[in-house]
Specification:
Length: about 325
């Protein structure tokens, strides 16, 4: 089988995980990753056997550090069928002319605007609409987590409105610059937060608003979800709908925190303690007169990783059915 050639431009929290997930698939391969500086992550990427590409002006620095390079970032882009841009929010957009010039497809992450790609992706919500597209944005961790629960409930019961409160992790665990602050920060003070409106970039017909607070933790986000549905239902009906979704995991057996969920990820041997699924507490699922409440935790570092793989498969037309792509992705990464 000829494999789709994937380059990962921006090898940080998301980029390194996407590279490993792409590598695990049968129908795509990583032809290179980019690093701007010859730091420890570049050394590890080299150890993992990735071909590393760097900006032309930094080649000497890599030579001095003894980290072998395969070429410049432009050269990497020239060899790829599709680039997954994992650069920090706001930087990825500046790379668009590079991708257009090289005639390669590109995926951006949730830190970029919907307008940049013109299409925002979530595998269970709109896989079929991504087929053959040149540019796609995989929505952020919080938006992905919301789309994964809203889509199946809307399909089965119809949704009148959704209201969300998000406790956001302050920074990722590897961040030594910003660190968690000793406070609860309104993010932002004005409502809604950007998350609810961002869900509409994938599911335009959903009536949704959100509020978000930054809390001093690095592990996961936590959502309090409130939905008003159009059809009479019970908590058991909701559990059945969520239970049918491969990227939703029920957490229980005494787990009352995000720390314990990450411990589960460690115990089951997940790479980098990643929890790719939405983690929902089934005991929290409560229905009262068509109003549904529950808690879910979202692992910000990894939840978008399988979605990137599915977006590649749709854009490269390697699989026409979303459900089959999801199955292939899950199986290959061990989800
Ligand atoms: P990160 O800072 O961990 O990684 C970004 C990487 O890109 C770094 O290695 C950096 O050196 C590199 N980089 C910077 N400028 C570059 C350039 N011009 N060319 C090539 N590489 C460059 O960032 P991240 O957390 O992985 O976020 C990447 C994107 O994913 C953002 O859009 C972000 O909003 C989104 N996202 C992040 C998370 C999260 O929680 N970390 C979750 C979902 C989506």
């Amino acid at each position: 089988m000829v494999k789709a050639k994937i380059a990962v431009n921006g090898y940080g929290t998301i980029g390194k995980r996407v590279a490993d997930a792409v590598r695990a698939q049968e129908d795509m391969e990583v032809i290179g990753i980019s690093k701007t500086k010859p730091n420890y992550e570049a050394a590890v990427a080299n150890q993992l056997g990735y071909d590393i590409y760097a900006p032309a002006e930094n080649i000497e620095a890599f030579e001095k550090a003894g980290i072998p390079l395969a070429g410049t970032i432009q050269e990497m882009i020239g060899k790829a069928d599709l680039v997954v841009d994992g650069t920090p929010g706001g930087i990825g957009g500046k790379n668009k002319p590079l991708y257009e010039k090289a005639g390669v497809k590109a995926i951006w992450q949730g830190g970029e605007s919907h307008q940049l790609a013109g299409f925002s992706f979530n595998a269970v919500s709109n896989y079929d609409k991504a087929l053959g597209r040149d540019f796609v944005r995989v929505v952020s961790c919080n938006t992905t987590g919301l789309c994964r629960v809203i889509s199946p409930i809307d399909k089965e019961l119809g949704i009148n409105k959704v209201r969300i409160t998000i406790a956001r992790r302050a920074v990722d665990p590897n961040d030594i610059k910003k660190g968690p602050v000793n406070a609860i920060v309104l993010h932002p003070v004005t409502l809604p937060s950007h998350h609810g409106p961002d869900v509409k970039s994938v599911l335009p017909n959903i009536n949704i608003t959100s509020a978000a607070l930054i809390v001093p933790t690095t592990l996961m986000h936590l959502h309090t979800v409130n939905m008003e549905v159009n059809t009479d239902c019970t908590a058991e009906d909701i559990k059945k709908i969520f239970g049918s979704q491969s990227r939703i995991r029920f957490v229980g057996q005494g787990i009352t925190s995000t720390a314990e969920i990450i411990e589960v990820a460690r115990d089951i041997g997940r790479p980098r303690n990643d929890m790719w699924e939405n983690c929902i507490w089934p005991e929290s699922i409560t229905v009262n007169e068509k109003e549904l409440y529950f808690f879910q935790a979202i692992h910000q570092e990894s939840i978008v990783v399988p979605e990137n793989v599915d977006a590649i498969r749709a854009m490269m037309e390697l699989e026409s059915e979303g459900a089959k792509s999801i199955e292939k992705t899950n199986k290959a990464i061990g989800l």
